[in-house]
């Protein structure tokens, strides 16, 4: 008799196959790019996705300074942080953040779409964002990934 197994296979850190993906942010909309990258980091595009395991890929994003926002978000969208001192709340618009630190626009958007726990912090460490076309992950040989093919 043919023995079929209907047991669900749960991935773990030894059985996960992690890849390096290269994503070009040139002309991409910030929110749409961030949601797709968060899906790649989480591993939801893989058939062996397990919610409590880091089964996602390592993602390298280049050309962070060429990201797009729709409408008046360049002036209206504000990023608020606190220094830790009394009266230390600081705010900066998306346009000001793009001029000083373009990579933080993408990092903040992707971080907001990951789980708010230990797993989310571990997944965020698999993201590398660079301004310009040069990056430091040539040794890992990342494969170019087209986000337009993804749902």
CATH architecture: Alpha-Beta Complex
- Count of the domains: 1
Name the CATH class: Alpha Beta
Element order, helices and strands?
EHEHEEHHHEE
In summary, what is this structure?
The protein is of the alpha/beta class and 151 residues long. The chain has helices spanning 30-42, 73-76, 94-100, 102-112, 118-124; strands at 20-24, 58-62, 78-82, 89-93, 127-129, 143-144. The chain has a single domain (20-149), classed as Ribosomal protein L13 (Ribosomal Protein L13p, Chain: A), CATH 3.90.1180.
Q: Could you describe the 3D structure shown?
A:
- The chain is α/β, with parallel strands linked by helices.
- It has a single domain (20-149), classed as Ribosomal Protein L13p, Chain: A, CATH 3.90.1180.10.
- The chain contains five helices and six strands.
- The protein has helices at residues 30-42, 73-76, 94-100, 102-112, 118-124, and strands at 20-24, 58-62, 78-82, 89-93, 127-129, 143-144.
- A four-stranded parallel beta sheet has the order 5-2-1-6, with helices on one face. A two-stranded antiparallel sheet has the order 3-4.
- Helix 3 (94-100) packs across helix 4 (102-112).
- The radius of gyration is 18 Å and the shape is globular.
- The mean pLDDT is 94.
Topology:
Blueprint: E1 20-24, H1 30-42, E2 58-62, H2 73-76, E3 78-82, E4 89-93, H3 94-100, H4 102-112, H5 118-124, E5 127-129, E6 143-144
Parallel strand pairs: 1-2, 1-6, 2-5
Antiparallel strand pairs: 3-4
Helix pairs in contact: 1-4, 3-4
């Amino acid at each position: 008799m043919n023995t079929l197994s209907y047991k669900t296979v749960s991935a773990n850190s030894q059985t996960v196959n992690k890849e390096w993906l290269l994503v070009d942010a040139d002309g991409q909309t910030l929110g749409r790019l961030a949601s797709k990258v968060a899906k790649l980091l989480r591993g939801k595009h893989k058939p062996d996705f397990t919610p409590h395991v880091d089964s996602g890929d390592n993602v390298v994003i280049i050309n962070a300074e060429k990201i797009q926002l729709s409408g008046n978000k360049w002036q209206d969208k504000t990023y608020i942080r606190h220094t830790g001192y009394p009266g230390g709340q600081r705010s900066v618009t998306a346009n000001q953040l793009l001029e000083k630190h373009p990579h933080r626009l993408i990092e903040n958007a992707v971080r907001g779409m990951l789980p708010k726990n230990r797993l989310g912090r571990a997944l965020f460490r698999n993201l590398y964002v660079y301004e310009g076309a040069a990056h430091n992950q040539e040794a890992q040989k990342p494969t170019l990934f087209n986000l337009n093919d993804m749902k």
